[in-house]
Amino acid sequence: GESVGLHLPTLSVQEGDNSIINCAYSNSASDYFIWYKQESGKGPQFIIDIRSNMDKRQGQRVTVLLNKTVKHLSLQIAATQPGDSAVYFCAETDSWGKLQFGAGTQVVVTP
Amino acid sequence: KAGVTQTPRYLIKTRGQQVTLSCSPISGHRSVSWYQQTPGQGLQFLFEYFSETQRNKGNFPGRFSGRQFSNSRSEMNVSTLELGDSALYLCASSLWTGGTQYFGPGTRLLVL
Questions:
Q1: A3/A25 Cα distance (integer angstroms)
Q2: Separate counts of helices (H) and strands (E) for chain B
Q3: Of A7, A54, A61, B45, whose CB is crowded by the most CB atoms within 10 A?
């Protein structure tokens, strides 16, 4: 069936470097994508979203890129900090408004 | 504005029992969705309620049910608990169906 998947289960990044987290989606009809961050013991926290009529959106230290041609989504975190250590999920909203989540990528920030 | 709140935060039950979890959405949000999160299956959608009506449902057995009240607060119930129901149950609210969802801290359920 349709699914959202992440390429890398764990990403180790040095503090101060930029992080790139990738996500592949298979439902070409999806028109809304969201990135969430989940820290240990907490619920997912909204980071940034993007609609299918855009290919780039920037927030504070984060940028989401959408490539509809290859059905790929990425989250870029600039100047990664220890507080960025968490699991990151991409999610897509189907036509019914249901969120489908990817498996998640664990980001580990090393000093 | 207060975020999504869930009660209780932790719960221990035994097989065969039933459990009710509660979720209070962000003020003004009318859609509430529930998810189950386990290490093996990740985040899985249970159901969504909007204006007291179930709008979407995931692939879970009928033991999992929910409801929404006129103040948008929602409850989910799991009957005849099984060991495999041990999970973090997350509630998320949004202004409308398909809107950006904001999550609560979750209720961690352990079934013994």
A1: 6
A2: 0, 11
A3: B45
Query: Is any Cβ of chain B less than 8 angstroms from the Cβ of A101?
Result: yes
Residue pLDDT, tens place only, A18-68: 999 999 988 888 889 999 999 998 999 999 999 999 999 999 999 999 999
Contact criterion met (CB < 8 Å) for B103 and A45? yes
CA separation for the pair A30, A83 (Å, rounded): 31
Q: Report the amino acid identity of residue B20.
A: T
Please list every residue in chain A whose beta carbon sits closer than 8 Å to the beta carbon of residue B101: 34, 46, 99
Task: Tell whether omega for the bond before B8 is within 30 degrees of 0, i.e. cis.
Answer: yes
Quickly list DSSP for A67-86.
ETTTTEEEEEESS--GGG-E
Kindly report the number of other CB atoms within 10 A of residue B13's CB atom. 16
Chain A CB contacts of B31 under 8 Å are 97
